[in-house]
Amino acid sequence: IWLDYKVGSSPETWTGARKFSDDDGRTWSVSESLPPGLLGPIKDKPIVLANGDIVAGSSTESPHNWSAWIERSTDGGNSWRRFGPVTIPGEPYGIIQPTLVELAPNRLRLFARSRQGKIYFADSADGGRTWTAARPTSLPNPNSGIDCVHLSDGRILMVYNPSARERSPLAVAVSRDGGETWKPWLELETGPGEFSYPAIIEDSRGNLHITYTWNRRRIKHVVIAE
Known about the structure:
4-stranded antiparallel beta sheet; 50% strand; 226 residues; Neuraminidase; mainly beta
């Protein structure tokens, strides 16, 4: 198990660190600081590409600008290189907290949080080394975290807040064409409150696991049997 985390009191001062566990989280290695310029995954999980490379979305934010990039490892996570940034042209508040899918070998798509009222996306045709400019999807985004997963059957599921202003409701949208178009799939929360910072994975049995903050007081875990 890998545990990537941040050290610092605010995103502007964060540094990246990680630990490892070989016994399902019972014990952990000593903390290892990442090299300068690397922060590790920011919010969303890394993915392993078809060729075995590992790719993680990373970002930073300050009162004056946002910046997002990709960190890649070709040696099983022992060393990493940074590629990017991925930008919205002419917009200092670009994107943060990218979530990634591999649509075909070396063809990647990222989706990210923005301050422009929409989830944005960008594409790479070389395994994450170079990227297009980010552009808006049809999905709203109230400046809140998102996550997606590329299912074994080819669909992409996106967990997000379908609102331009509020972090409620929390829902899941589905795409059957690689993220070009989206349709509502499931509502997770519909009442007043804040339901945010979701994460989603598919397990080896095809079940879906979704976690998110519930009114910033608890972490809720939802299991969906496929």
